[in-house]
Known about the structure:
Elements: H1 2-36, E1 65-72, E2 82-89, E3 97-101, E4 113-117, E5 130-136, H2 138-152, H3 168-178, E6 202-204, E7 210-215, E8 219-224, E9 228-233, E10 236-241, E11 246-249, E12 253-255, E13 263-264
Parallel strand pairs: 5-13
Antiparallel strand pairs: 1-2, 1-5, 2-3, 3-4, 6-7, 7-8, 8-9, 9-10, 10-11, 11-12
Helix pairs in contact: 2-3
Amino acid sequence: MKHTATTRRWQGLRLSLIGLSLFLLPLFVSLTQHALSDTVDRPWWSAERGSIGLSPDPRAAPQALVQVFSARAVGWRGAVGVHTWVAVKRQGAASYTRYEVMGWGVRRGRSAVRIGPGVPDGHWFGAAPVLLAELRGEPAQRAIEIIDRAARNYPYADRYRVWPGPNSNTFTAHLARQVPDLKLDLPPTAVGKDYLPWRSPLAWAPSGTGLQISFGGLLGLLVAGQEGVEVQLLGLTLGIDLDGPALKLPGFGRLGPQAAAVADSE
């Protein structure tokens, strides 16, 4: 009996070490790649902010449009995570409106929520964005009204924390939960997407196709048709997308086919 108990303890320890290495090894690779890249010493104020051509010219495309983007974060944070935002264009509008959260000025009393005109698919201080999801036409027009209300009622507008949240990815997940038509599958590098307050640890997954439980963004589990199965540990996400199929790794990102953006129109 004593031998059996010892064997079980060693097996449990081995499994724990394997699980921990699945979180730490991809993160180490990402940190190493970032340290060796030419972005480390690039000053943020001179970095590229222009469009990459994923959003149509509003004068040539009158229909309503909603797009969700992600791009590697600025500085050392880019080794681990991304910044996400939502860009919208109303039917017949001549410009786009960006909805996002930023930490600059929050300590001085400024709202973390930023709503205003901007380049929808612009580089995020040198990092090219990736289109995660979109809606076009009438579904987009309906979604824009919901997004605007949800953004203006964001519960964490007076605070910002890079880790484990609430941050820009917490905000995008908040908007996505109000618009299930987006079926938004936020990348595993969207640190903060799983942040939920300790008093309310259960919520819909951002895609609206399943549920998640999260204790302050530090420990959690998500099971959904769009995202697959994800485990969160200390703000890091490890998961598998069965629909892809693809692995979701901390820091490194998605390993497998990129999930297709949703593009509904009527």
